[in-house]
Design brief:
The protein is built from 11 helices and 13 strands. By secondary structure, it is α/β, with parallel strands linked by helices. The chain has 2 domains: 172 residues, Thiolase/Chalcone synthase (Peroxisomal Thiolase, Chain A, domain 1, 3-Layer(aba) Sandwich), CATH 3.40.47.10; 161 residues, 3-Layer(aba) Sandwich (Peroxisomal Thiolase, Chain A, domain 1), CATH 3.40.47.10. It has a 5-stranded mixed sheet with strand order 1-7-6-4-5, with helices on both faces. Strands 8-13-12-11 form a 4-stranded mixed sheet, with helices on both faces. Strands 2-3 form a two-stranded antiparallel ribbon. A hairpin with a 3-residue loop joins strand 12 and strand 13. The longest helix has 22 residues. Bound molecules: oxa(dethia)-CoA. The site of oxa(dethia)-CoA has 20 residues, from helix 2, helix 7 and strand 12.
Length: 344
Amino acid sequence: MSKITAAITGIAGYVPEYILTNEELSKMVDTTDEWIMARIGIRERHILREKGLGTSFMAEKAVRMLIAKTNTNVDDIDMVVCCGVTPDMPFPATANIVSDLVGIKKAFGFDINAGCSSFLFALATVAKFIETGKYKKIILIGADKISTFVDYTDRATCPIFGDGAGAVLIEPNTEGYGMIDEILHVDGSGRKYLYQKAGGSSYPATMETVVNRQHFIFQDGQPVYKAAVSNMTETSLKMMKRHGLTSENIDWLVPHQANLRIIKAVGQHMGLPEEKVMVNIQRYGNTTAATLPLCMWDFENRLKKGDNIILTTFGAGFTWGAIYLKWAYNGHQMAEKEKEISLD
Ligand code: UT7
């Protein structure tokens, strides 16, 4: 029997309607469009502002489109995994909520949190289920309403983040397409540079934690920046060496979208021309777990069966790594089909 690999066979995304521009941000904190564009490369980000709507709202939209464009029967879905750092609530898992909203009744699932590397780690995890041969259709969602934890009085962090969701369908493949390899790492000693102090079991919400603004993201940007460039580069180069990949035979790099300067540095260290590096940070900002699927969704119409793709991320934890996959379908037709689907 030929080896079973886990292949992405469809992709969809969703970003909220409201767009927060650099101009508007510069009225909220002491910043400018020039500074944000030069230092981070973000022009605007989408924010889910409506009260009572959480991550599941965006995930549901992405999953509904994914199901429609791949003609998937909800009763055939075996598993739903939602990854990210902003579940609707501590429990139950957002995967359960989304399954219920979409009408997926025969699947099991759970959430995965690995900071901004959530999608990378979750893709590697669910691939193992497919590779057993027992599971045939898995939906993996990368979604975050990270604006929940952004302090819009802190100019060092508020320009960076945006909300969004991406979802992929993963199915078995026996022709060698899909997930080939992963290199994944954590280093918990990096946790002091990027975290949200309160709201978990160590520091549950109290009047004091709220007054001290401890429910917001804290980031010491420079150590995170340096570790992101070096670790994303190192794991990507290691992956290239392992599989005889070169700047010529890699078709796409899909990097986590945290800072355009980080993305460019990693691409350059890998010897890749800019046109092989997927970038959409200018429109969405850092959407945490959603950056990779939103990138692949945006570029779906240019993806071809057999494309060699490296995914790489770095995030809070620290967490980082790289995945090598061979794209499993011609994206143009699917991207065109999506344009004809109206879900409302
Ligand atoms: O997704 C998870 C992983 N996260 C990342 O990969 C993020 C990694 N870090 C970064 O991307 C960058 O470190 C930041 C974008 C967060 C910050 O950029 P930076 O070039 O490292 O700036 P900095 O923190 O060193 O600050 C430089 C200067 C400071 O002023 P002084 O002290 O030199 O006078 C800041 O106060 O820029 C100032 N500054 C700003 N000025 C205008 C910081 N934020 C702003 C702002 N507007 N928004």
